[in-house]
Amino acid sequence: MTRTPLSLADVEKLARAAHAAQTDKAGRPYAEHLAAVAHGVATRGGDPDQIAAAWLHDAVEDHALTEEWLDTAALSSRTKAIVRALTKHPGEPPESYARRILTTPGALLVKEADLAHNADPGRLAVLDEDTRKRLTEKYARMRALLGLPA
């Protein structure tokens, strides 16, 4: 029996609820980042599977939702594959992470939108200098590994 996939509105609601207690490094509600990434995917021409994955891209990694939840969720197999590709594993080398993104159809666009928001100068400006420098270097390295322009 096939279940009807969750609508984008349902995915957004679910992601906001799952991350409700979280804040980003600047102390802002984490859902603002998810919304920015989803918007970035949409404006870059992403399809509904990619937009859904944008809303959920950190859910498993941040333990907001479980891998078991993802396995059984009413989401397309493509959305699930993108979320899995974007989920970093503890101790995983950046090169392995980038390779998984590059070999998963649709994942690169979501990661590009994620990196764009993470590296937004306005977002970084509120962080202390050491954190800002560390994150700027980390994001630049990932962009390079993914073959994205600097």
Helix/strand layout:
Elements: H1 8-18, H2 30-43, H3 48-56, H4 67-72, H5 77-86, H6 94-102, H7 107-118, H8 121-125, H9 129-146
Helix pairs in contact: 1-3, 2-3, 2-7, 3-5, 3-7, 7-9
Radius of gyration: 15 Å
Oligomer: single chain
Rounded mean pLDDT score = 95
Strand content: under 5%
Helix content: 55-70%
Shape: globular
- Secondary-structure element order, N to C: HHHHHHHHH
Report the span from N to C terminus.
Answer: 46 Å
Question: Structural class given helices, strands, pairing?
Answer: mainly alpha
* Low-pLDDT windows of residues: none
Main sheet attributes: strand count, strand direction, barrel closure = none
Walk me through the structure.
The protein is mainly α. Helix content is 63%, strand content 0%. The chain is globular. The longest helix is centred in the last third of the chain and has 18 residues, at 129-146.
Highlighted features:
150 residues; 9 helices; mainly alpha
Quick summary:
The protein has helices at residues 8-18, 30-43, 48-56, 67-72, 77-86, 94-102, 107-118, 121-125, 129-146. The chain is mainly alpha-helical and 150 residues long.
